[in-house]
Every structure is written in structure tokens, then in C-alpha cells.
# Entry
Amino acid sequence: MIKDIILPDLGEGIEGAEVSEVAVAPGDTITAEDTILVLESDKASMEIPAEVNGTVTEIAVAAGDEVKTGQILIKIEISDSTDAIVEEPVLSKETDQIATSTEKEKPPEATLYPAIEDTSSTENVFASPGVRRLARELGINLQIIKGSGPKRRVTKDDLNGYIKLQMAMSAGSIPAPQPVIDFSQWGDVEVQKLTKIKRITGERLQQAWQLIPHVTQFDAADITDLDSLRKEVKKAGAEKGIKVTFLPFLMKALSVVLKEMPEFNSSLDHNNENLVLKNYYHLGVAVDTPRGLTVPVVRDVDQKSVFELSDELMDLSSRARDKKLKPNELKGGTFTISSLGGIGGTGFSPIVNPPEVAIMGVSRSAWKEVYDKVSREFVAKFIMPFSLSYDHRVIDGAAAAAFTSRFADVLSDLDHFKD
# Structure
């Protein structure tokens, strides 16, 4: 039995990558753990495993090729038929309400709104019988849709995307194109191309801002005692070669509050009708790299010590800057934290990272005179400003205020950080 190895989902925000190395050749006998390709994207360098045991029969890509999620990479004659699992795709809700497709192929991932071709083109249209039948039923000319599959094949996702585009245009939700302006008429200019990661991040943030009703709650925490504890832990960490910052303490505190307020550790389902509460605590951490912002995910934060989190953060941050993160390390987050405390600022409103429903932004801490009601005197306290942006469809203002207040309380209770 021949198994098609396709490019898996590379993580949130990564639509494709370039083949930097082909590690196998036709006739090679390989195991499921063997690396078949090495890919290079703006976010990471990653190795793609074979997935099954068998013999390579065909290689569909070469070094230097650009590949997209869902594209066939190689074909393997498997030695164990139970290794091959073919998933049947499901139509989007919008299309399924109009007609039912019998297409059985696994399509590559298409963009939200596919490009539309020039209708005067005379090129043959590649599409499966199921896609052709559905297009005929809906009265859609496949020739105007730009296919994202091999040989520009029009996939089911391309057709779904085209339908969504027409619906969005009818609802007036497609923004008007930006006017072309010649800025050089007023002086010297320099054109600098955006990196791929910045373009993708920008598109995702714009979409999140348009689709999610954002509200931001601002607060501050007294971290005077926590600062003293961190200095002690920092010295112990230095002896182990581990750099200890405030971030792992904040992550531990967040895991405590997220357990108490599970709606902040949730996602809306695809119908926006049900809330999926997650019983795991994987925190995305925004990392600034020379190519733009990336968000690796630290898993099971509630089960790790401050030292373990510090060590993992050092590793993830280093590999993020060197583009060596693995695809699985960029997805699965339940809540995101963006810390700008090491840079500056007194506050900011981060944008929610879907499908999450909330994100925390941390700004630079500073010593301030705070009135002590017990001593009736002003005393110096180390104050950390922070903010919580949230999806108002899921979280209301009272819950957000309770969350930030509880988070500040946890930071002041050092018992939460004793491992």
C-alpha cells in the first residue's frame, strides 16, 4: 500500500516553508521516526518525520521548493498497512448548509479568502469530481478561483473560501483597498520589504482585531516581596547556569488563577455557541526576534517549578531567535503573556491571540510611594503595571477585574512559588 506523506500543519501563523534538504532517496528503507525533509521558514527550521515504516517510492519535492500545508512530499510503500490512516475532510458550515460534497481527498490548507483568477484564462481547471459537482450545484465557475493544490488544483477549501468571500463582500466586511500613494513626491524614501513572519503576524492580528470585541483591563501588583525572592532564586539559578527573570513567577501565578477562573483558559467552538474549557495550562510567551514576533508555547506550566520554567524559557527564546523551533512548539496555547518589562513602558493593550480568549501584557515595574493604611505612612513599594485584554463575547468586565485582582494577590503570596 502506498502512503502519501503530506506537509502537516506547521503551527499558528505558518502557511508554508522552503525545502532546505531532502534526506531520503527513492528506494530507501525508512522508519516512522526517520527525517525525510528539513524545512526552513521565517519562524523556524524543522525536520519532517516519515510517519510510517516502509520504502520510498517517489519524492515530490526538491531542495529550494516552496511547500504548503497539505502538499504531498513523498510517497512510501508502507510495510504495515495499519500505519496508514486517511482522514475524510469535513465541509465548512457555510458550504455544508448549501450542499453536501462526497470528496474524499485530503486538501491542502487554503487561505481564508482565495485569490480570484482572470476569467479570460483558458487554462484547464484541475479539481476533484466532488468539487466540480458542488460548484455546478452552486453555479460557481471554478475557472475564476485560484487553486492552492498541486498543479493549481482547486480544492474543497478553495471553494469554501470563495463562498466565504462572497458572503463577506455581501455583508460589507471586506475592507477597502489601500490607496496607492507616491511618498517620494515629498522627499527621499526607502522601501523595506516586510519579513514573512511580520506579514503573517500582521494579517492574523488584523483579523483578530476585526473579529474579536476587545476590552482591556488595567491593573497593578505589589511585587516587593516577590522581587526579594526572585533575587535569591536568581543567585541559586546562576550557580546552575539558569537565568531567572520575573516571567516564570508570573506564569506560575497565571496557572493558579486560570485554574480558579476556567473561562479565561477556554476557546469558543467553531459555531461560537459553546465554550471549550481546557484542563491543561499551556502558556504562549511572546518572543521578539530579528524577523518579528513569535509565540512559542510552554506546556503544563502548573506542573513545573520556577527553575524548570526558567530553563525552558531560555531554550525556547534562543531557538526562536535562531529559527529552530519545532512546529508543535508553536501551537496548543491556552493563554498568552507578553512581557515588555525589560524594555519599558507603563502600559499597553495586547491583542487577543485566537483561538484563546485572553492575553496579559506586562510593563516595566517601578518603585513608588504607596500609602500604608496600617502604619498611616507612605512606604516604598515595587509596583508592576499589567493589563488584560479579553474577548467580550466570553468574558465580562466584572470577571476581568476579578481576574486581575486575584492575579495581583497571588503574586504577593510567596507560598505559590515554593517548589
